[in-house]
Amino acid sequence: MKKGYLYIVIATLFFSSMEIALKSVSGQFNAVQMNLTRFLIGGLVLIPFALRTLKKKKEHLDKKSLLHFAGLGFLGVVVSMTFYQLAVENANASVVAVLFSSNPVFVLFFSGVILHEVIKKNHVAAIVLEIIGILVIVNPLHTSLNIAGVVMAILAAVAFALYSVFSKKQCNRYGGVVVTCGSFLFASLEMLLLIGLSHVGPVADMLSGNGLALFANIPLFTGYTASNVLTMLYICIGVTGGGYAFYFMAIEETSASTASLVFFFKPVLSPILAVLILHEAVPFNMVIGVLLILAGSIANLLPAFARRKEKPVSLSAEQGRF
Predict the structure, then answer these.
(1) Cβ distance 97 to 282 under 8 Å?
(2) Dihedral pair phi/psi, residue 283, rounded to 5°
(3) How far is CA 17 from the centre of its chain?
(4) Higher local confidence (pLDDT), 299 or 155
(5) Nearest to residue 236, comparing CAs of 90, 69, 78, 43?
(6) For residues 156-166, b (16+ Cβ closer than 10 Å) or e, as one string?
(7) Are 14 and 246 in contact (CB under 8 A)?
(8) What's the number of CA atoms in the CB half-sphere (13 Å) around residue 77?
(9) Which residue ranges does the record assign to the EamA domain (predicted)?
(10) DSSP character string of 33-89
(11) Which of the pair, 64 or 142, is modelled with greater confidence?
């Protein structure tokens, strides 16, 4: 159990520093290029953990499951993380961290609509509190935030929530680490294909001519320098690979509900790190918004802690916090 709490602390530090690390190399890499690098390396780091989980569960991957992983990778990484990376480049790291950390509100909504799961009173309270928290942070009537960055952060959260909901069945069968590893690796292959396609003359011209020059002629190896190599290693091996690995090890040592404390502390710790490292200003409305989102998290988590001794059945809901 003590090891489990240590894993929670390490995972919290990794995930809370994600936006800060990405912001520090913002503009040096293409968004798709960055995602390919970090999720390919992250997926490779997770392979030993995934193989161990498959052996423990006595499961074998079939063609249907591999196709599911490919679809999940496209939705959860290619789509969601591209929006996420663009959000980091266009808005403050603290804003993106808090907005993306609130995405379980969308998980709850989509779980009710798509999976027909019962939305209980505490879920409704969580949804209401987190939506109000988002509105307070964005402050639509008097906002000074980059609207494009805010919209991209919300789109990233929506797409990742859908990924979490659609991955639930696979998570229950294979375990979250297997689904995460598989979706990361398939997403890397998909992004590699997209990068290759972006260099095809007619495709590149069409994208450039329609305001999508960012996705034309996507670089693969440029941008890496001696000054950013340590940051990139931290992003790829630490945040993306290590963060997920320690999170799943925390689940094994404690429980899914206990390990989800990682994403209770992230909306608080990320803005603090943004202030200390990036010297970003945290306005009063963001503090109020974070408190409302935390209240929503408490409303969502309390019943899970009350059922700690029961077998966790909704690992994908916790995945929605990544």
Answers:
(1) no
(2) -70, 165
(3) 12
(4) 155
(5) 43
(6) bbbbbbbbbbb
(7) yes
(8) 33
(9) 3-138, 148-299
(10) HHHHHHHHHHHHHHHHHHHHHHHHHT----HHHHHHHHHHHIIIIIIHHHHHHHHHH
(11) 64
How many structural domains are present in the chain?
1
**Among candidates 151, 191, 230, which has minimal Cα distance to 70?**
191
Mean pLDDT across the chain: 86
C-alpha closest to that of 32 among 287, 220, 199: 220
Q: CB of 74 within 8 A of CB of 190?
A: yes
Tell me how crowded residue 151 is: count the other CB atoms within 10 A of its CB. 16
Tokens of 306: 């009350």
C-alpha to C-alpha distance for 118 and 116, rounded to whole angstroms: 6
Distances (CA, A) of 141 to 130, 135, 150: 18, 10, 14
pTM for the whole structure: 0.85
pLDDT over 90 at 32, yes or no: yes
Q: Which domain holds residue 65?
A: 2-319
Mean pLDDT to the nearest integer, 163-172 = 87
Name the residue with tokens 């398939």. Answer: 186
pLDDT, position 308: 57
Q: What is the pLDDT of residue 312?
A: 46
- 60 is written with which tokens? 């074998």
Residue 231 CB partners (closer than 8 Å, separation 6+): 21, 24, 25
Report d(CA 217, CA 195) in Å as an integer: 7
- d(Cα 252, Cα 56) in Å, to the nearest integer? 12
Question: Residue 206: is its pLDDT beyond 70?
Answer: yes
Report the candidate in 99, 110, 93, 168 with the shortest Cα–Cα distance to residue 139.
99
Return the structure tokens found at 75: 């939705």
